[in-house]
Amino acid sequence: MRGYHFSDYKPNNSPSGGFNELLNLFTQLLNYTAGDAGDALAWMNELDKQYKLTNNEYAMGDFIDDLKDKGYITESPVNGDIKITAKTEQTIRKSALDEIFGKLKKAGRGNHNSNLSGIGEEKNADRREYTFGDSLDQIDMTASIHNAQINHGIGNFTLTERDLEVEEKDFKTITSTVLMIDISHSMILYGEDRITPAKKVAMALAELIRTRYPKDTLDIVVFGNDAWTISVKDLPYLQVGPYHTNTYAGLELATDLLRRRKTNNKQIFMITDGKPTCLKENGRYYKNSMGLDRKVISKTLNMAAQCKRLGIPITTFMIAQDPYLQQFVREFTQVNGGRAFYSSLTGLGEYIFEDYIKNRRKTVR
User: Fold this and answer.
1) Which helix (H) or strand (E) holds 151?
2) Helix %, strand %, coil % of the chain (to 5)
3) At what angle do helices 19-32 and 86-101 cross, to 10 degrees?
4) Which is nearest to 213 in space by CA: 270, 263, 271, 138?
5) What is d(CA 230, CA 207) in angstroms, rounded to the nearest whole number?
6) Helical H segments across 52-119, by residue range
């Protein structure tokens, strides 16, 4: 018989400040220093002085030596510059995934389900009567026999076509996603760091796709005065520039990337905190950061409508609370037929995670 065994509580008296604890802090600081290992270690030294992160047995010098020995950092023999390695970049992504998505409910399988069901590949909870053309492996024999007993009694067992119950199945899909990140100057204005949470979400999403949905594709587009792609390995080093917000250029590039993907399911996630303020026309920048400029807004909305015609929904994650900016996002979403979330920085990752793996079905009879 299974039961409980009780014993005396023995607290863990092991000293803090070991390598793993310091490594976790180091990777967190790298998000704020844009991947600058020297700055992150300098911050750790100051924190150690104030909060005594290390002890006499294991000090900061030991930690730095271990980082080198374990392949997390390299030191230039010429000028002594310290840089992180690919191993650290992956560690940062895994840390972001654990931090943002770790407490959320995990889905059972590492594949997306489509919104169509019928003769698919994975069973779902939907049931229906048998119709001509259904395959035999779809028939739930236990439920069908149960139906026959209810309908005809158990004295003289009879099984008819109307007793047969069919299990629906979902089709597996491959999804192509473009994640757009606003790197305009407003992402660090007003005393609030908005770019670091956006970077963490991007790294977590990239690691989620790499580990659980390896057949999916993820492209990352950053947009300021212009728009360009960056690789996953570049994310820790991403910084805000002295830029305006050329949302049109970001959407144009994202659409071009998705056109090349040979998948049926395509989507754009856009993280932004402000209104479009910039266009590029005939090699020159047209800028107006004062308000919702008619020319800029018109072209941006036209691009949203083009995405709708191409079957590319845009999910906007708005991380600013200004009512007039939210009104623009509502109009933008209506034109595209997509979705919008007005999220705080702390809830951003949860919104993106849940929206990415959400399973929406409708039954095809």
Assistant:
1) helix 141-152
2) 40, 20, 35
3) 90
4) 263
5) 15
6) 60-69, 86-101
Strand, coil or helix: 139: strand
pTM of the model: 0.73
Pairing outcome for strands 217-223 and 227-230: antiparallel
Contact present, 307 and 255 (Cβ < 8 Å): yes
Question: How far apart are alpha carbons 231 and 176 in whole angstroms?
Answer: 15
Q: Which helix (H) or strand (E) holds 271?
A: strand 265-272
- Write the DSSP assignment of 166-216 as a string of letters: EEEEEEEE-EEEEEEEE-SGGGG-TT---HHHHHHHHHHHHHHHHHH-TTS
Check: CB of residue 224 under 8 Å from CB of residue 246: yes
Cα distance between residue 282 and residue 103, in whole Å: 49
Q: Which of 289, 216, 229 is nearest to 256 (CA)?
A: 229
Tokens standing for residue 227: 């728009």
Q: For residue 356, give the DSSP letter.
A: H
> Residue 77 CB: number of other CB atoms within 10 A?
7
Residue type at position 344: S
Per-residue pLDDT of the chain (365 residues; tens, 9 = 90+): 344 455 665 555 444 568 999 999 999 999 999 999 999 999 999 999 999 999 999 999 999 999 999 999 999 999 989 999 999 999 999 998 888 766 543 333 334 443 444 444 445 556 788 887 777 878 888 888 888 888 888 777 888 888 898 887 655 678 899 999 999 998 888 778 889 988 988 998 889 888 888 889 999 999 999 999 999 999 999 999 999 999 999 999 999 999 999 888 899 999 998 789 999 999 999 999 887 899 999 999 999 999 999 999 998 988 877 787 788 899 999 999 988 887 777 777 777 777 776 633 322 22
